[in-house]
Amino acid sequence: MVLVIQFWWLILIVIAIFSGLFTVNQGTIAVITRFGKYVSIQRPGLRFKIPVIDQIYKRISIQNRSVELEFQAVTIDQANVYFKSMLLYSVQNETEDTIQKVAFKFISDKDLMQALVRTIEGNIRAFVATRKQSEILGLRRDIVEFVKEHVDASLEEWGYHLQDLQINDITFDQAIIESMSKVVASNNLKAAAENEGQALLITKTKAAEAEGNSIRISAEAEKQAAQLRGQGVALFRQEVAKGMGMAAEQMKMANLDTSVILFSMWTEAIKNFAEYGKGNVIFLDGSSEGMEKTMRQLMAMQQMEK
C-alpha cells in the first residue's frame, strides 16, 4: 500500500515537473506573471516555470513587422490627397524594461496597431494641411522625415521603433488629375513651341549668313574678274599700240603711206563683225564712195593726231 502511494506521488511530481517546462521560439520573448503580477522574461530555448502558479502572459515578437496604410488628407487649398503607404516597425530592443512596456502598454496587438496607424495618419494630415496641392508630389521625402521625427518619441514610450515609412502612392481626385495632365500637356506644348522657334531662328540665321557669304564671295569674284578684264583690255591696247607703232615705222622706212594701216584695220574690223556677229544686222556702205569717205575720215584723224 505504501509503495502504491509513493508511486503515485512520484507520478504526480514528474507530471508537475513536465508541466512546468515550456519552449520559447526564436525571435520571441515570453513574459511570465505570478498571480497576475510580472515576474520575469524568458528568452528563446527550453524554459521552466512553477506549474499552476506561474503563467505565460504574452509571447512578444522581436522581429520586424509591417502594416499597409490607406488614408486621405486635405491640403491648404482644399484638395483631397489619397495616400498608400507601408509602415515597418519593431520592438526597440530586448531589454527587460522595453519588453515590459511592450507587454503592458496595450491590451492587444489590435489596440497597438490602431494607436500606431492613427498617430501616423494624424502627423501626415497635419503636414499636408500646411501645403498646397501642387507641392505634395515633390514632398514625399519631407513627409517621411516629418513623420519619423514626431512619431519616434511616442513609439519609444510604447517600446517600439519606427524602422521605415514608405509612401508608395499619392493620388488626387479625378478632376485634379485631369487638370494636372492639362497643365503638363500645355507646358510640354509651350516648351516644344519654344524649341521649334529657336530651331527656326537658328535655321534662318544660318541661311542668311550663308546667303550673305555667297553674295560677298560672288561680289569679290566679280570684282576680281572685272579687274582682270580691265587689265586684259589695257594689255590688249598696249600691244595694239606697240604693233601699230612698229608697223608705222616699217611703213615709213619703206616710204609707204601709213594710212594703209588704218585701212587694213578697218577691213579686219568688218571681217570680225561678219564672223562673230551671231546673226546681228550691221549696215555698212560697201560702195567705192563709201570707202573713199571712210579713208578721208581716217586720214583726217591721223592729221589731227599729228
Describe this structure as you would to a colleague.
- 61% of the residues lie in helices and 21% in strands.
- The relative contact order is 0.06.
- α3 runs antiparallel to α5.
- The chain is an alpha+beta fold.
- It has 4 domains: 60 residues, no CATH class; 108 residues, Band 7 domain (Tetrahydropterin Synthase, Chain A, 2-Layer Sandwich); 59 residues; 50 residues, no CATH class.
- It has 8 helices and 8 strands.
- The N and C termini lie far apart (185 Å).
Write out key terms for the chains shown:
306 residues; 3-stranded antiparallel beta sheet; 8 strands
Head-to-tail CA distance between termini: 185 Å
Instruction: Provide mean pLDDT, rounded.
Output: 79
Q: Give the strand content.
A: 15-25%
Total helical elements: 8
- Total strand segments: 8
List the domain count as a whole number: 4
Instruction: Give the SSE order as H and E letters.
Output: HEEEEEEEHHHHEHHH
Taken from the alpha-carbon principal axes, the silhouette is rod-shaped
**What's the CATH superfamily of the largest domain, by name?**
Band 7 domain
Low-pLDDT parts are none
Question: Can you give the helix content as a percent range?
Answer: 55-70%
CATH class of the largest domain: Alpha Beta
Instruction: Kindly report the CATH topology of the largest domain.
Output: Tetrahydropterin Synthase, Chain A
Query: Which architecture of the largest domain would the CATH scheme give at its second level?
Result: 2-Layer Sandwich
